[in-house]
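step=encode ok
step=design start
structure_in=
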């Protein structure tokens, strides 16, 4: 039993990047699927695929690297809101990651989105993680 599935998701991606893997498999959930879609839309991962294997399914994520230098697109993944201490921000106090160069993934009443999209929608919510 996993008490923090989002931290597990981020750790699997972080470990795969450190080991220079091209593809990482992660147990699926709706929130993890939404986070994967945000990472793909913002260009941090190359591609993804949802497969219905087993009781809950699997997310296969193709990691993105620079073609010449082999530097990963994701330099840092940091979990912000934890089960023991949830981090919520209203629309006026949304975080900026590296002065807007990175993204903060948020769970809002209008779905999972980045901090920039939440500013446009004028909604707040739970800050899940920082990606840079």
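sequence_out=
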């Amino acid at each position: 039993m996993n008490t923090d599935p989002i931290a597990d998701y981020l750790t699997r991606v972080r470990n795969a990047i450190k080991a220079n893997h091209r593809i990482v498999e992660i147990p699926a959930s709706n929130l993890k699927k939404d986070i994967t879609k945000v990472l793909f839309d913002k260009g941090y991962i190359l591609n993804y695929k949802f497969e219905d294997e087993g009781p809950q399914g699997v997310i296969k994520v193709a990691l993105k690297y620079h073609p010449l230098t082999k530097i990963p697109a994701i330099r840092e993944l940091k979990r912000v809101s934890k089960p023991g201490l949830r981090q919520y921000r209203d629309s006026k106090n949304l975080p900026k990651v590296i002065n807007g160069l990175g993204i903060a993934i948020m769970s809002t009443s209008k779905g999972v989105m980045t901090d920039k999209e939440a500013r446009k929608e004028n909604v707040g919510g739970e800050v899940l993680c920082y990606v840079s």
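step=design ok
step=annotate ok -> The helical segments are 5-18, 30-41, 115-121.
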